[in-house]
Specification:
9 strands, two-stranded antiparallel ribbon, alpha+beta, 7-stranded mixed sheet, 185 residues, L-fuculose-1-phosphate Aldolase
């Protein structure tokens, strides 16, 4: 069994490596207005303090994709809830990212043969937040590669990407970034 400090350091190292790749290669058009998120949890994480994230997310500065801050544990509670919910369905899935939704971007992920599952807003359980019940409802038979919400109630759509570790998720975003260079979002 790994030393807890060593595991936390390894999580931060891998997350920072993925962030560097995204800063170098992510298409700026995938960044939603509030920024994109990237999180990575320690094994068995149970709360926000066990999930490392980019504080402020991935944002645009001067037209370039950049990290909003230095990766840290407990830095993105909303996105931490996403991965913690997914980990209940599959503890091996410990990384999640959020990017802006468009039908064209979804089409790229489908063409990459990633499993893409929509959040069905018609089956909302009233006392639970949309993000929590939506992710849980999509993970009844394991965690898909992509969960998407087309938006509504004046909220923009969002894509949630999942993987076992950050470089896998970042590489899927980079492949998508390269493929959307020539299409209209």
């Amino acid at each position: 069994m790994k030393d807890p400090v060593q595991e936390r350091n390894e999580v931060l190292y891998r997350l920072n490596l993925a962030v560097s790749h995204l800063e170098a290669s992510m298409n700026a058009r995938l960044i939603p207005d509030g920024g994109a998120s990237l999180v990575y949890a320690i094994k068995g994480a149970r709360d926000n303090e066990g999930v490392a994230a980019v504080p402020g997310g991935m944002v645009l500065r001067g037209g370039k994709v950049t990290a909003g801050g230095i990766c840290a544990f407990g830095a993105d509670e909303p996105c931490a809830r996403i991965i913690l919910t997914a980990m209940k369905a599959d503890p091996l899935i410990r990384c999640a990212a959020t990017i802006g939704f468009s039908e064209n971007v979804l089409g790229v992920f489908e063409a990459m043969l990633l499993e893409c599952t929509p959040i069905d807003r018609t089956h909302k359980a009233p006392p639970i937040s949309t993000m929590d019940w939506g992710i849980a409802a999509c993970c009844t038979d394991g965690v898909p590669d992509v969960i998407y919400d087309t938006g509504g109630d004046k909220k923009p759509g969002i894509l949630y990407l999942f993987g076992e570790e950050p470089l896998v998720v970042a590489n899927n975003i980079i492949i998508c970034s390269n493929r959307i260079l020539s299409i209209e979002l």
